[in-house]
């Protein structure tokens, strides 16, 4: 029960319906109790939850990569949240309510540096070899642009991240050790970062590899 202590315009304490009265530092105030939404189950809410869950499972193992790949889109949000937003809006597939990430459309890096040209990838004896065409003469590309490699194991949910390898754009090849077993599906992403860190490129999903 609510109590009005000083007339109709005076202090009010307690609860009447969804109206709550209280006092803080001698100041009387009222607020409306929010409607409980602890477990929303509308179709739209379920769909959004499933998109969020699928995207989180994909991106969370690659946090260190995303901090670099999305650092120029971390405006009023973290790089990770910027990546979450992009993938949810641009790289979902499936029929409601069963959504999954479309790995070919997902970007794990976004930027204005010249991107990858002609990428390919293969796996053998625990190593992934990624090749591309040297396009260091194109646009704002430079021979010493650093390679950014991400191999996401879609079967186990683990990621292999390479950010500090000496390989550069002009080398046109990088080899990275990955942990996998036969039957695992590897999603291979490649991007570049300027030598001084001032720019990154959009990533390219180079290839999906099923480990033999």
- Topology as H/E string? EEEEHHHEEEEEEEEE
The number of helices is 3
CATH fold type of the largest domain: Immunoglobulin-like
Largest sheet: 4 strands, antiparallel
Tell how many strands the DSSP assignment holds: 13
Could you say how many structural domains there are in total? 2
- Please give the radius of gyration in angstroms: 25 Å
Uncertain spans, ≥5 residues at pLDDT below 50?
none
CATH classification class of the largest domain: Mainly Beta
CATH superfamily descriptor of the largest domain? Immunoglobulins
Give the DSSP E fraction (strand runs of 2 or more residues): 25-35%
Give keywords:
212 residues; alpha+beta; Immunoglobulin-like; 4-stranded antiparallel beta sheet
Q: What does this protein structure show overall?
A:
By secondary structure, the chain is of the alpha+beta class. Helix content is 17%, strand content 33%. The chain has three helices and 13 strands, in the order ββββαααβββββββββ. A hairpin with a 4-residue loop joins β9 (146-153) and β10 (158-162). The strands form four sheets. The protein has a four-stranded antiparallel beta sheet with strand order 1-2-3-4, with no helix packed on it. Strands 10-9-12-13 form a four-stranded antiparallel beta sheet, covered by helices on one side. The mean pLDDT is 89. It folds into two domains: 3-32, no CATH class; 43-210, Immunoglobulin-like (Sandwich). 30% of the residues are buried.
